[in-house]
Amino acid sequence: MKKKFILILIFTISLIALTSNPSKADYVSFVKEEISSDGHPILGAFASPLVSAFTTKQNFGLFTVYETRFDDKDKEYLKAIGIFNHFFWLHIPE
User: Fold this and answer.
1) Residue 4 in this model has a pLDDT that exceeds 80
2) HEC secondary structure over the chain
3) How far is CA 24 from CA 20, 43, 55, 57, 64, in A?
4) Residue 66 has pLDDT above 90, yes or no
């Protein structure tokens, strides 16, 4: 009985994660809001097209990793994981 409950729980959580995986447009909005909330409202207004153009997306089904890199050799980049319609920073420039 306990194994059956655990399998149902894992299946349910996986199904929720699959259906609530945020899109690239959601990520762009998230970055724009973060920039604006950091005291840069003018930069935030122009961020959407730049972030969208320089962002790569790796979809792993249950979650997605987004990376925004303006230069391949640049160590200043943004990286976030999107899961359950939320984003969590993995790397942000200092």
Assistant:
1) yes
2) CHHHHHHHHHHHHHHHHHHCCCCHHHHHHHHHHHHHHCCCHHHHHHHHHHHHHCEEEEECCCCEEEEECCCCCCCCCEEEEEECCEEEEEECCC
3) 13, 19, 8, 7, 9
4) yes
